[in-house]
Design goal:
The complex is a heterodimer of chains A (about 325) and B (about 950). Chain A has two domains: about 160 residues, Uridine Diphospho-n-acetylenolpyruvylglucosamine Reductase, domain 3; about 90 residues, Enolase-like, domain 1 (2-Layer Sandwich). Chain A is globular. Helices cover about 30% and strands about 20% of the residues of chain A. By secondary structure, chain A is of the alpha+beta class. The longest helix of chain A has 18 residues. Chain A contains eleven helices and twelve strands. With about 950 residues, chain B is of the alpha+beta class. Chain B has four domains: about 150 residues, Orthogonal Bundle (DNA polymerase, domain 1); about 180 residues, Alpha-Beta Complex (Aldehyde Oxidoreductase, domain 3); about 240 residues, Aldehyde Oxidoreductase, domain 4, CATH 3.30.365.10; about 140 residues, Aldehyde Oxidoreductase, domain 4. Helix content of chain B is about 30%, strand content about 25%. A seven-stranded mixed beta sheet of chain B has the order 8-10-6-17-14-15-16. A six-stranded mixed beta sheet of chain B has the order 12-20-19-18-13-36. In chain B, strands 2-1-5-3-4 form a five-stranded mixed beta sheet, with helices on both faces. The N and C termini of chain B lie far apart (about 85 Å). The chains are: A alpha+beta (about 325), B alpha+beta (about 950). The interface between A and B is large, with 52 and 64 residues.
Chain lengths: ~325, ~950
């Protein structure tokens, strides 16, 4: 059988995007490959062309400027944890990175890849045969959501661990497309629709993550899972306060996009928790129930407030 | 196709590959370096780990094209000039290798780690290995091997081999005889053995849980270029099954399907890809029938045409009912001062061995040869004969190295029959390898179970009576189910003395993959129940749970209520060992809230006294051959699946003949070359094959003695065989082993002897009396300490102290490995493992969602071997591979009760349930406070 599969390994962003544009939607960028390759094995991902980004050196830099700490999107999670600037300025990001997958995964998985990893649902992350047996869900050409049994909306979960950590410290990302680059708040790229979880064009690339320096963030990171390694998150929360008294909560694992709630360190904590819960559209689509995960949102956040020393400041 | 150039283990190679091939495929299939294993293809087990430009990489999820120009190092590349790396030597020395399937990946991950972390702590090592799954060892010995490597690297003095030098072979721990092969990646497992011109087989599986097959259209698939044969069920209609009394399975579905995943058609083609494509071109038309997915549903009265197996004799989907009564259970309960009664529920769990099923079949002038990952070559041999209608004498089953089994490879499997048939039809070798999903679908794991259990005792805590009502979910076929049904009940009659005991087990068919035998077969869940009730009775009688157990233990050399003959019995010693080790008396009910300690006991058979097939064959036969070169060939049908039975046989023979292990050569697991052994199941191999080896070695000794007497003219009755010498007590005769060999082979050539083992006649004279009869029983105890997170309800097992009476440890290093592996597996069932279903389809058929513990989840384990010298075991030995699993689960659950007061009656332990309990209590407390204020 003649296979149509193609593999490109460009050495600069321009070449990568040029190749991408010539292929319409029938391609996929691959960074570490720890998410994409598994999805391909399962038949959830079938593009004929893979564009491997790992030879693009300019995506691998970590640099500390005056206002921002910039992390190239291709920095892998193990390297990221070892970087002293990140460890000093944003330990919450190290906590998050260390919680991803397993040590073997973290040697190759990149920060950019983790921000863009595909949403998950136990009724979707299955083999072709399996999905045929249940009658294909919305996320793979079916007509209804299998997890809810009836809904016409995809609730597959956003499961990045690093995204909540980054969002809580106001991270921005630099996106390159059509020869131009723009900088947006990280949370703005997520749509909340499990079927199309990101609003980026297929050919767009994240060049770097930008972390604002000199805000004196204090953060607490938490991840819910049964095993201490390998597991995807069932709930990840990051809570950060800054020197101006701003408080930002970001959570994954409970909605098709990161749930983000902002307040101040003096905000009513019960109200903050209620806002997170009201934004969360968690359903029963993973190992833990919706009910339990929602309850754990409360526990994680209360404990985080306490650990930040702001547990009793609510008015 | 594209050319890829890379340096592999120091050599530049240019090879033609498909552009999207994974690096693992390229390494295994194109470069033919099969030391790199494929366990999951999803980056979740680490068996495929290699180094890419020095960095550990899971090659199954790495696109090969990425590595153009890279330096790739595989397990074959880390020893230089046949000198093993220190890490490899430590893996061997510490007994870190059992089945060996995860070993190459473990070594590669460790290799990368130690180079970058020379000052790592043990905790760092645990963390570093937490992406590599091992199902055999419980990680303890692997972590030790890496730690000692780091130590040895710093030390820089030449590493000693660390093994104790001892005159005695039996009783001195030693690595497996094949350990070096496994640590180098050269041990060949089923999928590593390649044949020229082999075809690849892929299976089309049912997408319905219960349906009539109206038609199967294979015409398009047959036309596809590269397809050699497409088969469907009607070609092989004969039934098979591991038990002669319940042969209800066919190689492929015939007429109807009984679970989602059942094989409907099979294709043999020139490549896996073509076979897969052909499967997708087969059109099957199904007419769904009502499906039965829960135990209760299967007990409803239904129409004949709704039954899963129309031939059963009930008007529902009941498969088997097993029931026994001893004494007067109801009466005993009535007069009991204290009662404990609970309902229990257990999810199904599965073996999760690291090596997926794989097989290759071919035919030649000798008939069929099948090379397959199996625990039971003999039963498979018979099943092939029956289904293929080929005489037994035209079939050969070869078991190569097997990457773990735990009961999951102890039935004849449909795919083994299918590739044999396809090889016959095509005249070419046919290969098959399962995906991890297919392994899960094939299941044969522990039965999902519901039970009601009742236990009563007098005011002193002396047990009066036990009563159990048990329902087990068998899935679509029988497998070992009849035995499982009995074991759930009968294996409750020890280690505690009982006079009044009754149970009834009902096994039902459901439209799910079949349940079968899994480590600790049949009795794990009911053991959990009884040990939980004992903990409850201890509280009710205000007795320490250890004292309660001590009060009720059976003595050695006694009979149980169901006529089991108990000989050696180390219950008390085992329990006392863990009580001391764990500092039980200072911890029980004394740890701060959220922390607790629990204890439990168990026992298990050392092989079933009644063989599955009623015939006059011995249960195990061992042949020995001594030839002119002084080497003793051990020939046994026993199946080493990683538990170390080949080494055990070699040690017994070497010890008996007083010769060094270098003079022993073991060939096993080949039904043509070796005499019959029934297989690796029911913890029978050390006891039965070990005894056969002992008998054979003793005979050989007698033959050599006679020959030496003849040659020397001395009539010394007994000669001493020791230190590679044969000599007389009086000192007037001393021959080296080679001289003795010369004497023994003079005038006749190679000397061959045969030993065998058959269990003594045991048991009572009533229906069901045979179930659970064994020539000997193992006993054991576990204490576990846990922390229960008050915010999440998540249970962390912090310590396991275990002790197991294995009679005598022939190879203590291997025994420790079996015990630690058992406790690891039990811990998984306790806290994280369960097969989950959606409309009969397994929801978590991968290593991400089916959660076997990682190195970070397994606690500190203290391992104790208790020796009681069984009167009938070889050198006093009995089982150690399964029984140790029993007590660990209830010990953990009892610890949770001690920690937070939540009684666990469902497995796995659910954090959600614990949290609900906390919340309920919080509400109660708040209400109380409120009430008090008002």
């Amino acid at each position: 059988m003649e296979s149509q599969s193609k593999y490109f390994k460009p050495e600069c962003i321009e070449d990568a995007q040029e190749t991408a544009k010539s292929l319409g939607t029938n391609f996929r960028y691959v960074a570490g490959g720890t998410d994409v390759m598994v999805n391909r094995h399962q038949g959830n991902e079938k593009c004929e062309t893979l564009i491997d980004l790992t030879a693009i050196k300019e995506l691998k830099q970590i640099s500390k400027g005056e206002k921002f700490l910039s992390i190239g999107s291709l920095v892998n999670l193990e390297e990221l944890c070892k970087n002293s600037d990140i460890a000093n300025e944003f330990p919450v990001l190290c906590d998050a990175a260390k919680s991803v997958g397993s040590p073997l995964i973290r040697k190759w998985a990149t920060i950019g890849g983790n921000l863009l990893c595909e949403n998950r649902c136990i009724y979707y992350n299955q083999s072709e045969w399996w999905r045929e047996s249940v009658g294909y869900c919305l996320k793979c050409e079916g007509s209804i959501c299998i997890a809810t049994g009836s809904k016409k909306y995809c609730y597959s979960e956003f499961i990045s661990d690093t995204a909540p950590a980054l969002i809580s410290v106001d991270a921005m990302i630099e996106i390159v497309d059509n020869g131009a680059s723009r900088i947006v708040q990280l949370e703005d790229i997520y749509t909340g629709d499990g079927k199309q979880p990101r609003n980026l064009k297929d050919s767009a690339l994240i060049k770097a993550v930008l972390l604002p320096l000199s805000y004196g963030y204090e953060s607490v990171f938490k991840k819910l899972r049964i095993r201490k390694s390998l597991d995807f998150t069932s709930l990840t929360t990051a809570v950060s306060s800054n020197c101006n008294g701003k408080l930002k909560i970001a959570a994954s694992g409970i909605d098709p996009k990161p749930v983000v709630v902002e307040g101040t360190i003096k905000s009513d904590k019960e109200e903050l928790i209620a806002r997170v819960l009201s934004k969360s559209r968690a359903i029963n689509n993973e190992m833990f129930t919706r009910k339990y995960r929602r309850e754990m949102v409360r526990n994680f956040l209360s404990n985080s407030f306490e650990e930040l020393g702001i547990g009793d400041l609510g008015e | 196709m594209k050319l890829l150039k890379l340096r592999i283990n120091g050599v530049t190679r240019e090879i033609s590959i498909e552009e999207h091939d994974s690096l693992a495929t390229v390494i295994r299939e194109r470069l033919e370096l099969t030391g790199t294993k494929i366990g999951c293809e999803q980056g979740s087990c680490g068996a495929c780990t290699v180094l890419a430009d020095g960095v550990a990489l899971q090659s199954c999820i790495a696109p090969a094209m990425r590595f153009e120009g890279s330096e790739i190092t595989t397990i074959e590349g880390i020893s230089s000039n046949n000198e093993l790396h220190l890490l490899q030597r430590k893996f061997i020395e510490k007994g870190a290798i059992q089945c060996g399937f995860c070993t190459p990946g473990m070594v590669m991950t460790s290799y990368d780690f130690i180079r970058n972390n020379p000052d790592a702590t043990v905790d760092d090592i645990r963390e570093a290995l937490s992406g590599n799954l091992c199902r055999c060892t419980g990680y303890k010995k692997i972590i030790e091997a890496v730690a000692e490597t780091l130590h040895g690297m710093k030390d820089s003095s030449p590493a000693s081999n660390g093994l104790q030098e001892s005159k005695h072979i039996v009783g001195t721990g030693r690595p497996y005889i094949e350990a070096e092969k496994k640590v180098k990646g050269s041990a060949e497992y089923s999928d590593d053995i390649k044949f020229k011109n082999a075809l690849h087989c892929k299976l089309l599986r049912s997408t319905h849980p219960h349906a009539v097959i109206e038609s199967i259209n294979i015409s398009a698939a047959k036309e596809l270029d590269g397809v050699r044969y497409v088969m469907t069920g009607s070609e092989l209609p004969a039934t098979f099954g591991v038990l002669p009394i319940s042969q209800d399975e066919t190689a492929l579905a015939v007429g109807k399907v009984r679970y989602i995943g059942e094989i409907v058609a099979a294709v043999a083609a020139e490549s896996e890809e073509i076979a897969r494509k052909a499967c997708s071109m087969i059109k099957v038309s199904y007419k769904p029938i009502r499906s039965f997915l829960e135990i209760e549903e299967s007990l409803f009265s239904i129409n004949e045409n709704e039954k899963i197996h129309p031939e059963t004799r009930f008007d529902n989907n009941l498969h088997k009912q097993a029931e026994l009564n001893f004494g007067d259970a109801d009466g005993g309960l009535k007069i009991s001062e204290h009662h404990s009664e609970m309902d229990f529920e257990f999810e199904g769990v599965t073996h999760a061995f690291t090596e997926p099923h794989a097989a290759t079949a071919y035919w030649d002038e000798n008939g069929l040869t099948l090379i397959t990952a199996t625990q039971v070559p003999h039963y498979l041999h018979r099943a092939l004969s029956k289904v293929l209608e080929v005489p037994l004498g035209r079939i050969r089953v070869i078991k190569p190295y097997v990457g773990g089994g735990f009961g999951g490879k102890s039935d004849p499997f449909p795919h083994e029959i299918i590739v044999s048939y396809l090889a016959m039809k095509t005249g070419r070798p046919v290969r098959i390898r399962f995906s991890r999903e297919e392994v899960f679908i094939s299941n044969h794991g522990r039965h999902p179970t519901k039970m009601k259990m009742e236990l009563g005792c007098d005011s002193e805590g002396k047990l009066n009576a036990m009563k159990a009502e048990i329902l087990i979910d068998g899935g679509a076929y029988a497998s070992f189910g009849v035995v499982t049904s009995y074991y759930n009940g009968v294996l409750l009659q020890a280690p505690y003395k009982l006079e009044n005991f009754a149970f009834r087990t009902s096994r039902v068919y459901t439209n799910k993959p079949q349940s079968g035998a899994m480590r600790g077969h049949g009795a794990v869940n009911s053991r959990f129940a009884i040990e939980t009730l004992l903990d409850d009775l201890a509280e009710k009688t205000n007795t320490d749970p250890c004292d309660l157990r001590l009060r009720n233990f059976l003595e050695p050399n006694t009979m149980t209520v169901g006529h089991y003959r108990i000989t050696s019995n180390g219950s008390k010693e085992s329990l006392m060992k863990v009580v001391t080790d764990s500092d039980w008396r200072n911890k029980y009910r004394k740890l701060p809230f959220g922390n607790g300690i629990g204890i439990a006991c168990g026992f298990f058979i050392s092989g079933s006294a009644l063989p599955i097939l009623r015939n006059e064959l011995p249960q195990s036969v061992v042949h020995l051959k001594l030839d002119f070169d002084g080497r003793v060939l051990v020939s046994s049908g026993a199946s080493d699946i990683g538990q170390g039975s080949d080494t055990m046989l070699a040690m017994i023979v070497a010890e008996t003949l007083g010769i060094s292990m270098e003079r022993i050569f073991v060939i096993a697991g080949d039904t043509l070359i070796n005499p019959v052994d029934l297989g690796s199941y029911s913890s029978r191999v050390t006891f039965m094959a070990g005894n056969a080896a002992l008998m054979a070695a003793t005979k050989l000794k007698e033959e050599i003695t006679k020959a030496v007497q003849r040659v020397s003219g001395l009539d010394t009755e007994t000669l001493i065989f020791s230190d590679d010498n044969v000599y007389s007590q009086e000192g007037n005769l001393r021959l080296s082993w080679m001289e003795a060999t010369e004497a023994a082979t003079a005038g006749r050539g190679a000397l061959t002897v045969s030993g065998h083992y058959t269990s003594p006649k045991l048991g009572g004279n009533f229906k069901g009396a045979g179930a659970g009869l064994s020539p000997s029983y193992s006993f054991g105890a576990v204490a576990a300490q846990v922390n229960v997170n008050i915010d999440s309800g998540i249970v962390t097992v912090e310590n396991i102290w275990g002790a197991h009476d294995c009679g005598r440890a022939i190879n203590p290093l291997a025994v420790e490995g079996q015990l630690e592996g058992s406790w690891h597996m039990g811990m998984g069932q306790a806290v994280s493992e369960q097969l989950r279903y959606f409309n009969g389809l397994i929801l978590n058929s991968n290593f991400i969602d089916y959660k076997i513990p990682t190195s970070l989840d397994v606690p500190y384990i203290k391992t104790n071997i208790v020796e009681t010298n069984d009167p009938e075991g070889p050198f006093g030995a009995k089982e150690c591979g399964e029984g140790a699993l029993h007590p660990v689960i209830p010990a953990i659950a009892n610890a949770v009760y001690d920690a937070v007061g939540v009684r666990i009656t469902k497995l796995p332990i659910s954090p959600e349930t614990i949290l609900e309990f906390f919340n309920a209590r919080k509400d109660r407390t708040e209400n109380q406070i409120l009430t008090n204020i008002i």
